Amino acid sequence: MIRFIDLRHVAEDVGDRRFAFWNTVTDKFIATDFGDQAWSTFDDFAESYAGDQLERFKGLTPEWAKRSATDEHKPTDSELHAEAVDMRHTEGHNGGAA
Question: In what order do the strands lie in the sheet with 2-6?
Fold first, then answer.
């Protein structure tokens, strides 16, 4: 089984690398052909990964890891949509008051 590992608050010696993948069968971090074991974004991982299970890894990766560190706290389009829907719902139940 493969596990996504969030490194953002674990160690300072990983630099800008924010996540890794752990193989629970081998008890080792996933390493690419380039020797990389941690990445900043999923795109970084995808560039160095030469296997045939990229979609599997993508499915394990949370949205924040699919964005750069500078964009990590910016809401995604789906988060903005959910917020807008929530605001419309709230406005409809406030008795019409502005």
Answer: 2-6, 19-23, 28-29
Amino acid, single-letter form, for residue 85 = V
3 state DSSP class of 15: coil
Q: Among 64, 13, 71, which Cα is nearest to 42's? A: 64
Summarize pLDDT for 49-90 with one digit per residue, the tens. 999 999 999 999 999 999 876 655 555 556 555 555 555 555
Alpha-carbon distance of 94 to 33, in angstroms, equals 58
Q: Give, in order, the Cα–Cα distances in Å from 97 to each of 48, 82, 94.
A: 55, 22, 6
Q: For residues 97 and 43, what is the distance between their CA atoms, to the nearest angstrom?
A: 46
In the structure encoding, which two tokens stand for residue 28, read together?
Answer: 């080792």
> If residue 2 lies in a helix (H) or strand (E), which one and from where to where?
strand 2-6
* C-alpha to C-alpha distance for 35 and 33, rounded to whole angstroms: 5
